[in-house]
Amino acid sequence: MNLRFQKTTRQLTNTNALRDTRRTIARIHTVLKERQIVRDLGLDESSS
């Protein structure tokens, strides 16, 4: 949220930070979804 405010007020010096942050969040969501799928299918390796 702060990055958007900084971009709007032209205080953001690294304009790639917004894109990088968005991509990092997408990666986190992907990993969480993968873990949920594994858990739902009962393929959790730690239960062996």
From TrEMBL:
A GO molecular-function descriptor: structural constituent of ribosome
A biological-process GO annotation: translation
One of the Pfam families matching this protein, by short name: Ribosomal_L29
InterPro entries documented for this protein: Ribosomal_uL29, Ribosomal_uL29_CS, Ribosomal_uL29_sf
Sorted UniProt keywords: Ribonucleoprotein, Ribosomal protein
GO CC annotations on file: ribonucleoprotein complex; ribosome
Domain of life: Eukaryota
Family of this protein: Belongs to the universal ribosomal protein uL29 family.
Name this protein carries in UniProt: 60S ribosomal protein L35
The species this protein was found in: Geodia barretti
